[in-house]
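Technical note accompanying the year-one report. For the benefit of new consortium partners, we illustrate the data format agreed upon in the data management plan: each record pairs a sequence with a C-alpha cell string. No post-processing was applied to the example shown here.
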Amino acid sequence: MLPPYRYHFRFPQFKILPLVLASLACASVQAQSLVELHAAARGYDAAYQSAKAQFDATLAKADQARAAILPTAGLGVSASRTSQEVLPGPERYYNAQSATLSASQPLYRPANWAGYAQGMKQITLAQAQLHAADQDLIVRISQAYFDVLASQDSLEFVKSQKTAVSEQLAQAKRNFEVGTSTITDSREAQARYDLVVAQELAAENDLRVKSLALDLLVGQTKVAPKPLKTPVDLSLVEPPDVEHWVALAREKNPLVQQADVALEVARLETRKANAAHLPTLDLTGSYSAVNNTGSSSSTLADSRINVANIGLNLNVPLFAGYSIQNRVKETLALEEKARADLEAAQRGVVQGVRTAFLGVQSGLGQVKALEAAAISSQSALDANKLGYQVGVRINIDVLNAQSQVFDTKAKLSKARYDVLVGGLKLRQASGTLNEEDLQTINRQLAP
C-alpha cells in the first residue's frame, strides 16, 4: 500500500480539475510488477548496457583472431613519369604504370592457430560475463523493489503507531483531568508521541530515498511497485541440500566459468609462446603488370611486362636473444596465476553458496518466529490495555506494548522480503538464476 504523501504527488488537489482527467491520472500511476520493472531496467540500466556492449565487442574481437589463419590479398598500383637528359644528346622521357596483385596463405603457423583458439574461448568468456551481468541486474532490481515495499510497510506501521499513541495520550490527559491518573502518564505518552513523530519523518525520508533508487534503476519516475498478496507464501528451498547447490555453483556460476576460460586462454598463450621456436611456412603468389609508354627516344619503344610468381616461404627461427625462452617462462607463470585464480573463484563461490543457503534457511525460521511473536505481542497489548483500564497496569506498559507490536510487524515484513531476495541470491550464487525465478515471485504479487 502506498503512503499518503505519494498520492499527494500524483493527485494534486485542483478543484477545477475535471473528473475525467482525474481518472486518467489514476490510470497513469498504475502499480507495476517486478517483471515489468526488470524489463524496463534491461533497456535503461547503464551497468547492464555496458556489459552488453562489452559482449558485442568481445565477439568482434574473437572474429579478428580468425584472420590470422585465413589468406590475405592486396593490390598495389603505381604510376610515374621519368625524364632523363644526357648532354649533348636529346632529352628523353617515358611513363610507367604498374599494378601488382599479391596473396598469401599460412600453411604452418602454430602460433596463429593458438591465437584463433584463444579467440573462440573469448566467446565463451563473453557469454559468461553477460550472464553474470544479467543475474546481477535481476538481484539489484529485486532488492530495490522490495526495499521500497519494506519502506512503505515501515511507514504504514509508524503511522498506525502514531495513531495508537495519540489515542493513548488523549486518554491519559482525560484521566489526569478527572483525577484517576498522575501527570506522569500524560508526560510519558507525550514523550512517546514526539518520538513516533520523529520516527515518521525518518520513515518518510527513507521511503523517498528507496523510491529514488528504484526510479534511477528503471529510468522512470514515481514508480509504484505492487505489494505481495496476503497471506505471503514463502516456499522452502528445494532441494534442501546445500551440497546440491554447491555442485551447481562449481559448474554453472559465471565467475567460475570466467576463471576456467581464463585458465584455458593462459594455456593457449603458453602454446603460442612455445610456437615461436617452430618454423613457419606460407604459400605466396603475385601477379604484376608494368607498362612503359611515351618515350621520345628511338632506342626505347613502348613495352608491357607481365610477371607471375608463386612459391613457398619458409622461415626457421635460429636465435632471438633468449626472448622466446623468457616469454615462455612468463606465460607459464601467468598460467599458474590463472590456475590459482580459478581455485580462488571456486572457493569464493562455494562460500557464497553456503552463506546464501544458510541465510535463506535462517530467514525462513525468523519469519516463523516473528509471526508467532506478532501474535504474542498483540495479545500482550490487549492484556495491558485491559490491565490499564482496571488499574493493574500503568500507561507506560501500554505504550511499550504498542511499540513492541508495531516493531515486530515491521521486522516480520522486512524478513519476508529478505527471504525472497535471499532465494534469488542463492540461485545467483549457484549460477542458475534466470527470469523464470522472477516470474515465480511475480505470481505472488497482488493483482
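Partners are asked to follow this layout when depositing records. The radius of gyration is 38 Å.
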